[in-house]
Specification:
By secondary structure, the chain is α/β, with parallel strands linked by helices. It has one domain: Rossmann fold (3-Layer(aba) Sandwich), CATH 3.40.50.2300. 43% of the residues lie in helices and 14% in strands. The protein has a 5-stranded parallel β-sheet with strand order 2-1-3-4-5. Helix 3 links the parallel strand 1 and strand 2. Helix 2 packs across helix 3 and helix 4 packs parallel to helix 5. The longest helix has 17 residues. The protein starts with a helix and ends in a 14-residue tail after the last helix.
Length: 194
Amino acid sequence: MGFSHIWKSHTWPKLVILTICAFCFTDMSMASEIGSRQDKKPINVLLLLPTDTKYMFTHALMFPALEIAMEKLESNDSLLRDYYLNVSYEDTMCHEAMGMKYAIEYYFVKLVDVFFGPICDYTVAPLLRQATFWNLPMVTVGANAWGFTKFRRTVFPMLTRVGPVNHYSLVNFFLEYVGRYNWTKVRLVSTLYL
């Protein structure tokens, strides 16, 4: 089967969300019971993803995985005790203004504690800069531009990147490979639409 089977079968986004949820809530010593939310406080998750299927990570692919992760969190008494996840979703359309618009709307009515997404670099950048001032974390499979890595500690301290590709490592691998075989000419084929 291998990695290519996982990638093509669209199960990769589900694995990413399960990893995100496990990562985000492992250190919290809380527990939960399904259905008894009246005495619990919400952890407000704002899921900011596009609906357009031309992008690798969309609402249709990611939300079912998030629902599975939520069910697992709620059924495990060792993870959430006094809290439950309250997930809201907005379509960013991968537009730089839309992610920020929704972030501001949810922030001012106090309905966001953590951002899941956005995925597109131009949408991530302004929202992440503002989230840093609000002291709100962002977990995303996006933010793949080099600047997010380079300025991780200084400009983007609230960012947690998860996902299938670390582009900086991929570049280093590629350069090592080209150097090893003394290649002098290289052609790349790329597409946004897989």
